[in-house]
Each structure stands twice: as C-alpha cells, then as structure tokens.
C-alpha cells in the first residue's frame, strides 16, 4: 500500500482525532499482538501520528498494568502497560486514556504502542519507525515530510 503524502507542519494544534482507513498492526515477541481496521489517530503539529487500537483488537493477556503515569493537556491522564508475548516483556510499551477529556472521549481505553519498544508497527503494511526521542509515541512512516518533534533541540516547540 502507498500512504498519501502528509506534512507534519500542517497538523493542527490543538490536535485532531480521526479514524484510520488503513490496517494497523503491532508485532512483539514474534507474535501479532494487535491488529485493527478500526483504529484512531491523533494528529498534532510537528508530531508523527499516534495510532490507537480498540481494546478488543489487542490480543488477550498481552498487556499488564505498568509503572508510571503522565498527563496530556489535550487528552488527560495516561495509564501505561507492560507488553508480554513470546517470552519477551517490554515495560511501558503501551498506554491508554481510561478517562480522556471530552474532546478525546473516543480514545477511552484504546491502546497506543511505542514503535521503539516493539518489533514492528505497520500502517497499511508500511513499516513505521519511532518518533525521535523517548517520550512521544508517534509512528513515522515514509510519507511524512517536515521536522518531527522529539529529537535534540525540538522539545521546546
């Protein structure tokens, strides 16, 4: 599949939430741990899209409550999960918003995965790489242009 070109500088702030038309997949521990055609994505200026899976499209038993919490001014308080599959565990590899703000209510209990903590993330069959830095959870695909926030010198934007 060929993803349409997108410029991360054109994404809005405050962020937008929209359905994803492509199949999303996450592979970890040699297993397909999440697959959906009903995903959502958050688009925010200078960020790679962050993809969210409905909880029923994540393999049963692969997520366990993890350490840490964070707060997003747009979406609310996030809860983190450790991911276990195929004899491997990745601490804090996924997160969700159990009680999101009204503007992001559709994200309730949907799960996002850090691309850098799993073996593979795919959007419409296209392999994604992690958003730079260790904090943001966007998936960078080859169709994106513009500077994606997260690397050295971009945190304060």
From TrEMBL:
<feature type="domain" description="DUF427">
    <location>
        <begin position="25"/>
        <end position="115"/>
    </location>
</feature>
<protein>
    <submittedName>
        <fullName>DUF427 domain-containing protein</fullName>
    </submittedName>
</protein>
<dbReference type="InterPro" id="IPR038694">
    <property type="entry name" value="DUF427_sf"/>
</dbReference>
<dbReference type="InterPro" id="IPR007361">
    <property type="entry name" value="DUF427"/>
</dbReference>
<dbReference type="Pfam" id="PF04248">
    <property type="entry name" value="NTP_transf_9"/>
</dbReference>
């Amino acid at each position: 599949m060929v993803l349409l070109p997108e410029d991360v500088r054109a994404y809005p702030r405050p962020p937008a939430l929209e359905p994803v038309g492509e199949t999303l997949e996450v592979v970890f521990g040699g297993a397909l741990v999440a697959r959906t055609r009903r995903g959502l994505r958050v688009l925010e200026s200078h960020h790679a899209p962050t993809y969210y899976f409905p909880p029923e499209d994540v393999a049963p038993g692969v997520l366990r409550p993890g350490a840490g919490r964070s707060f997003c001014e747009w979406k609310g308080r996030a809860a983190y999960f450790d991911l276990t599959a195929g004899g491997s565990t990745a601490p804090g590899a996924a997160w969700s918003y159990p009680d999101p703000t009204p503007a992001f209510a559709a994200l309730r209990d949907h799960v996002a995965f850090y691309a850098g903590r799993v073996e593979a993330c795919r959007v419409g069959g296209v392999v994604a790489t992690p958003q730079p830095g260790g904090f943001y959870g966007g998936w960078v695909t080859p169709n994106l242009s513009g500077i994606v926030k997260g690397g050295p010198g971009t945190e304060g934007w």
